[in-house]
Amino acid sequence: MVDADVKTKCFISEKKQPYLYMKVSLTIDGEDVGQLTPVQYKYLIMQALKETLGQIGASYTVDLLKLSSNGVALLRLPRGYSDKLWAALTMYGATPAKRRCAFRVLQVSPFLMGLVVDSRWQQ
Amino acid sequence: MAAPVYTDMNVLRQPNLSDVIDLGIELGFEQFAINYVVSSLQGGKGKKNEKLIVPPPAEVLLNDESVRSIQKRCASFKQLSRLTAVLEDASNTHRLGAADIQAYDIIAVQVTNEKTFQLACSTLDVDIICFNLSESLGFSLKRAMINLAAKRGIHFEIVYSPALQENTVKRNTISNAMSLIRAGGGKNVIISSGSEQPIDLRSPYDVINLARLFGLSHSQAKDAICRNCRAVLKHAESRKTCKSVVSVIKSSNLSVKEQWVLHQKNTREDSKKTDADMDSSEEDNTEDAHGNLMDSDCEAEMSDALEEPEKKKIKL
Questions:
Q1: Could you report the per-residue pLDDT of A81-92, keeping only the tens digit for each?
Q2: CA end-to-end span of chain B, whole Å?
Q3: Does A88 fall in a domain?
Q4: R_g of chain B, CA atoms, integer Å
Q5: Does B164 touch chain A (CB under 8 A)?
Q6: Helix, strand, or coil here: B213?
Q7: A67 φ/ψ angles, rounded to the nearest 5 degrees
Q8: Which residues form the Ribonucleases P/MRP subunit Pop8-like domain (chain A) (predicted)?
């Protein structure tokens, strides 16, 4: 919650930003996603891209910046392809081991700073 | 302009329905249409064919208790009943007009071939046309037909949850959805989950982004889960009214919110008695919320005594 006497400032950038930062949560049916290592997580992301977009889609650089213990990760995508990459993540529904899974995007921002606060859950 | 309400127009009726809806609300959806699928409209002419029995909408929907517990978390939660009939051929479509089917909030047909597609686009009185997108359609979606359906206020549905599992299904779904959107110019499309399990659901923003992959623009993509769903509901509502303008209901069936209409009618009658000019031919019927055709007499009455409930009504 923001105190009444704290002044907030709003900055708007008109420049096109090179990256899109994304907070993604992964759920896998009947599996604890907290156990996943960053390498495994990245592998699943690459699988998702490969499945929908093919080898060319998988060649875009997606960086896994941070992985929290509850399966929530921060990703960095190149801006120009971000909607395709996002859609590929959305369309991913089963892991290689035939377990049902879902990537759900929680927040998107062109700035990493933008992911600090989630306006959806603010009172 | 109504506030955007994210709607999932297709949640299948099955035992863990409440789990699906719980998660859907968490993700940001507010309205759900609970879908009951009828695999064919066969009538009971032959002795072997059993007559098609459609459960009343109350059996399809969640019960009041669970609705109330959901509304504690999400006050704007709303559930709608939807019936989807699979049309194998053009016969028995008159069955769609029967009272037990018309009792559902939304009526959809799933077309399987060109003939039924044309029939649904041109004559059938339905709200949604859907396809089996997981296989190749087997007929081309003609622009003229889609425009005709769009003109009649019918929407086309794209269901995404089957595409999440298998690669071939995913491929077919994407290609069918793209051809549907290309043929229709991106208008009159709704996107829904069709989910059986919670894991099939995606959040509204994921769906909007997915729609962009299918070839919709950003605003069209947003419309596909907000505005067009509202349009479907209005279309369904208009089916039950005369020329989409006036509807007549029995005064005993008025909901609690609209009881004031009766109250006003009584006061009006009283005042009329004192004025001693009686013309009470259509006095017995009360128009409901979309009855814009109020007689001038009544309008004058309303401006005379603008009370609190009436103000509310006018806002509507």
A1: 898 999 999 999
A2: 12
A3: yes
A4: 22
A5: yes
A6: helix
A7: -125, 120
A8: 19-92
SS (H, E, C) B115-140: HHHHHHHHCCCCCEEEECCCCCCCCC
Burial class (CB in 10 A: 0-12, 13-18, 19+), B61: buried
Structural domain of A96: 19-108
Q: Report yes or no on A94 lying in a domain.
A: yes
- Is residue A7 domain-resident? no
Best B25, B26, B210, B220 member to test A by mutation, with max A CBs in 10 Å, is B210
The CATH code of the domain that includes A68 is 3.30.70.3250
Instruction: Please tell me which of A2-16, B205-219, B246-260 the model is most confident about, judged by mean pLDDT.
Output: B205-219
Assigned domain for A40 exists: yes
H helical segments located in chain A: 38-58, 82-91
ipTM summary value: 0.86
Domain count, chain A: 1
pLDDT, tens digit (0-9, with 9 covering 90-100), for B193-217: 988 888 989 999 999 999 998 999 9
Closest CA to A58 of A40, A45, A39, A41: A45
Is A108 within 8 Å of B202 when comparing Cβ atoms?
no
